[in-house]
Amino acid sequence: MASALLNASQQLGGSLGLAILTAVATARFDAIAPRVATPAALASATTSSWAYAFVVGALLLVSAAVIGGLLLRPRPAEPPPAESAATPSPGSVVRTMTAAGAMDDGPLTIPKERP
């Protein structure tokens, strides 16, 4: 589910970005369109409009990186939670068992396997 959401958002972001850059390039082309439409003048206006659109896209990318860097600061590490009285430490459990005589059964023996 998360992979599908990620893929869909990437596809939508890519198509939206291309649409915005095309709109910027078209607006720039309309602003600098040659009065006499020769092939060289049209090629120059088209190249200039797309170069302008890519500069606008680069500025948007840099501004997004700066905003993201300012907003996404790492949080300071929180101190570990104090050990509560309800949870005994392993050492206190061993001391309690030893004091109660629960561990005075002698050495631990491991039964031998039968052939």
Give a concise summary:
The chain has 115 residues and is mainly alpha-helical. The chain has helices at residues 2-32, 39-71, 90-99.
User: Element order, helices and strands?
Assistant: HHH
Instruction: Determine the fraction of residues in helical runs and give it as a percent range.
Output: 55-70%
Largest β sheet strand count, sense and barrel closure: none
Q: What value does the average pLDDT take?
A: 84
Task: Write down the Rg.
Answer: 35 Å
Terminal-residue CA separation? 55 Å
Number of helices: 3
Write down how many β-strands occur, each being a DSSP E stretch of 2 or more residues: 0
Which helices and strands, and how do they pair?
Layout: H1 2-32, H2 39-71, H3 90-99
Helix pairs in contact: 1-2
Describe this structure in words.
With 115 residues, the chain is mainly alpha-helical. It has a domain at 10-71. Helix content is 64%, strand content 0%. The chain has helices at 2-32, 39-71, 90-99. Helix 1 (2-32) packs across helix 2.
